[in-house]
């Protein structure tokens, strides 16, 4: 077994150079006692520097330098002409892996076809400068993640599918593994945990579920696209082994990766789960409150319609299979709780069409009534969209929980960052989001570039964020403006769609009587 080498480091960090080895199980399932079914093979000819950690404080320990190790393995496969996807746990790490693989490499001759050139030009135009584009087509490694604009996504996916493009490595976020459908020969999963937030801090890490790990690995060798595939996991923590005895350190991921079963996500009933959450919590959450609004027409006063609906759910079927009387009792209890919860919501009286629209869209009857009553004061003399959208924002009450149904707090946080997330309470958070939207919407409707909008957002955040050491600056890739365009803009479109369905006939007219 190779020995670790400790070298000098000006930062007094512990550095270990170690050649990465691959562990293969030659039989189905995980049985480390059957050493004849295990094979160890080197994955790179040269050692790779491992990283170190000082957690807990005061203790140094060697940890897997997962990104550098994954990149070293990917490079070796890509040099043989194989298509490789490296799954990372954040956009920042994707960019780091791709940049590391491209460092010192000569640019490829441009080989984009007419469609690919048009996608690239459209992305540059939307962003305002080529520096803001996640470019692809002149380097061997590119990125694929949720902040890509549609044209950037089309460009990189098209080039990666092209066998002769020279783009052989994609660094992609692991969350996209669930829907990514690109042909490749090799998949490398850099770690079996992920960041549970938009931050790159170890504080937010959580382990990937077994089905997430295996689903990511299943991107290699897709049926009908590649006859074979290689799937590799770089563990978050180094796994010690003895090449002579094939003895391995214990690791919780090994039984999962080499499991006999398929590790599929267990089937669940989201509707029955929400019923149970209302029963246990008593106070509706944002999700259950949304459900109550959608079911308000279905439940009625006695809940008979709800019972008919609930008896068709998977949750009831499973309970009835085990114990029919208990399943009936479950229905009765949930019906009583839901009916009581709806009556306790104490929304203002509403007309039939308002109740129907609330059930259809999931927004509160209070908001629909407020839009109806405020409509006479709308900017009817303005032909442009901007005054109407600003007027709609003025109708949202930050003190009302239904605000979050229209403008999701997670979307506001991802666009306005610490200007939203550092506020002392939800009301202040919502107000900050509205202030930010009022600042950037004129630029958005004027057709200004995303880099320009990013600068506006950064100025707003720096002036609004509370108790920070370093003020926020604009992101060179316009990450906040991208998220506005792809997330909050659709929420505003949803709000406009609700207004389009509001019956603006006076409430006391014969039409509504």
TrEMBL record:
Spans traversing the lipid bilayer: none
Molecular functions (GO terms): ATP binding; helicase activity; hydrolase activity
Origin: domain of life: Bacteria
Keyword Nucleotide-binding: yes
Sequence ranges assigned to domain Helicase C-terminal in this UniProt record: 72-264
Entry-linked Gene3D superfamilies: P-loop containing nucleotide triphosphate hydrolases
UniProt cross-references to SMART domains, sorted A to Z: HELICc (SM00490)
UniProt entry keywords in alphabetical sequence: ATP-binding, Helicase, Hydrolase, Nucleotide-binding
Entries under SUPFAM superfamilies matching the protein: P-loop containing nucleoside triphosphate hydrolases
Record carries keyword Acetylation: no
PANTHER family cross-referenced by the UniProt entry: ATP-DEPENDENT RNA AND DNA HELICASE (PTHR12131), ATP-DEPENDENT RNA HELICASE SUPV3L1, MITOCHONDRIAL-RELATED (PTHR12131:SF1)
Protein name: Helicase C-terminal domain-containing protein
Organism, scientific name: Brevundimonas mediterranea
């Amino acid at each position: 077994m190779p020995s670790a080498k400790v070298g000098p480091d000006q930062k007094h960090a512990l550095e270990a150079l170690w050649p990465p080895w691959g562990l293969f199980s030659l039989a189905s399932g995980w049985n480390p006692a059957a050493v004849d079914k295990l094979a160890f093979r080197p994955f790179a000819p040269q050692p790779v520097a491992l990283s170190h950690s000082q957690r807990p404080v005061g203790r140094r320990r060697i940890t897997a330098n997962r990104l550098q190790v994954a990149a070293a393995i990917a490079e070796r496969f890509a040099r043989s002409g194989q298509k490789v996807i490296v799954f990372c746990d954040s956009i920042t790490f994707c960019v780091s892996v791709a940049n590391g693989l491209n460092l010192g490499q000569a640019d490829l001759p441009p080989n984009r076809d007419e469609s690919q050139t048009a996608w690239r030009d459209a992305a540059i135009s939307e962003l305002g400068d080529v520096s803001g584009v996640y470019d692809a087509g002149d380097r061997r490694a590119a990125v694929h993640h949720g902040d890509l604009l549609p044209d950037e996504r089309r460009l990189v996916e098209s080039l990666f599918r092209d066998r002769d493009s020279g783009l052989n490595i994609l660094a992609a976020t692991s969350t996209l593994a669930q829907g990514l459908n690109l042909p490749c020969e090799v998949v490398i999963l850099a770690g079996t945990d992920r960041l549970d937030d938009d931050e790159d801090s170890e504080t937010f890490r959580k382990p990937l579920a077994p089905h997430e790990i295996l689903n990511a690995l299943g991107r290699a060798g897709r049926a009908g696209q590649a006859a074979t595939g290689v799937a590799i996991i770089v563990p978050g923590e180094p796994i010690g082994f003895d090449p002579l005895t094939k003895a391995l350190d214990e690791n919780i991921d090994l039984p999962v990766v080499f499991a006999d079963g398929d590790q599929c996500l267990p089937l669940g009933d989201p509707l029955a789960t929400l019923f149970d959450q209302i029963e246990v919590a008593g106070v509706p959450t944002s999700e259950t409150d949304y459900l109550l609004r959608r079911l308000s027409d279905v439940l009625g006063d006695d809940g008979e319609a709800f019972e008919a609906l609930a008896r068709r759910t998977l949750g009831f079927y499973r309970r009835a299979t085990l114990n029919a009387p208990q399943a009936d009792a479950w229905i009765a209890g949930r019906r009583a709780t839901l009916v009581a919860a709806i009556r306790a919501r104490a929304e203002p009286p509403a007309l039939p069409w308002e109740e129907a629209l609330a059930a259809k869209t999931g927004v509160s009857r209070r908001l629909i009534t407020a839009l109806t009553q405020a409509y006479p004061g709308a900017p009817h003399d303005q032909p442009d969209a901007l005054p109407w959208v600003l007027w709609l924002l003025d109708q949202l009450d930050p003190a009302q929980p239904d605000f979050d149904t229209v403008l999701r707090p997670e979307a506001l946080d991802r666009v306005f960052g610490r200007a939203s997330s550092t506020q002392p309470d939800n009301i202040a958070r919502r107000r900050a989001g509205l202030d930010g939207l009022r600042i950037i919407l004129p630029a958005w409707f004027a057709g200004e570039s995303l880099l320009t909008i990013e600068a506006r957002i950064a100025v707003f955040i720096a002036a609004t964020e509370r108790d920070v050491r370093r003020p926020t600056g604009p992101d060179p890739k316009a990450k906040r403006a991208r998220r506005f365009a792809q997330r909050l803009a659709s929420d505003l479109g949803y709000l406009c769609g609700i207004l389009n369905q509001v019956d603006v006939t006076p409430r006391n007219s014969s039409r509504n009587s």
